[in-house]
What we know:
Layout: E1 2-6, E2 11-12, H1 24-28, E3 31-39, E4 42-43, H2 46-59, H3 67-80, E5 86-94, E6 105-111, H4 115-123, E7 125-131, H5 138-141, H6 155-166, E8 171-175, E9 188-193, E10 196-199, H7 210-221, E11 225-228, H8 233-236, E12 241-246, E13 250-257, E14 260-261, H9 266-278
Parallel strand pairs: 7-8, 7-13, 10-11
Antiparallel strand pairs: 1-2, 1-6, 3-4, 3-5, 5-6, 9-10, 9-12, 12-13, 13-14
Amino acid sequence: MRVLALLDGTQADPDSPLIRVDDLGLMRGDGVFETILVVDGKPRELGPHLDRLARSAAMLDLPDPDRAGFERAVDVVLGNWTGGREIALKLVMTRGVEGGDGTPTAFALGMDISPKVLTQRAEGLAAVTLDRGIEPGLMERAPWLLLSAKSLSYAVNMAALREAERRGASEVVFTTSSGSVLEGPTSTVVVARGRTLTTPPSELGILPGTTQAALFRAASRAGWQVEVAPIEVDELYVADAVVLASSVRKLTRVHTLDGKSLPDSTAVHAELAGLYESEY
Length: 280
């Protein structure tokens, strides 16, 4: 099922043409987006997602997103959803048509969550490490690379996932050339060691994670230590748990990395998943 809404509060037919062929989001990936998990009609972290959408738009020199318009569109999607209790809700804004008046193209689209994601949530997944070609300080030296923006330019991320499949895995942990952990193509990496949770610093060019932030809030209240600090790849193989956090996948444990079985993290993952759910 899909429900499509525009920022003026009207519902559109997702099977009818909407995007022009000369839209810069289509032609050049020139735009930004967010994906939000909705459970039982309630969007999770809607405010932080809208904040991040605005941050990404600013990095691309796009107009400030119409926050009220996106909120209207979200209400239309939720008010017309008749499918399952969980929705993947995408908010999209492009630079508009090439040579146009600068009016962005923007919409909200509610979709079913794929069975593959639901299976990975329950069973965990195998991942591989891949070099992203990023080194510390690059984001500061070259802001035009948009390293921490959630832009529509996802070709590299999708190519990495196809490479993972060629290697017999389904996910990727990006690394620097010197062996530091970055993030997944569509997720934040969280490592559990003892009663400490660690995620890499955004200064490396990592997209700040809304799901990771929610987990850290809940874990901190439950007595866990939480930190943002560098993680070396070698640390992943001996950690109590390696988790990929994202809105739709929630918290998914990595059970195999680069063909090596990781320590059994079933119990740790279950505790962390419970903490995350306690936020809602």
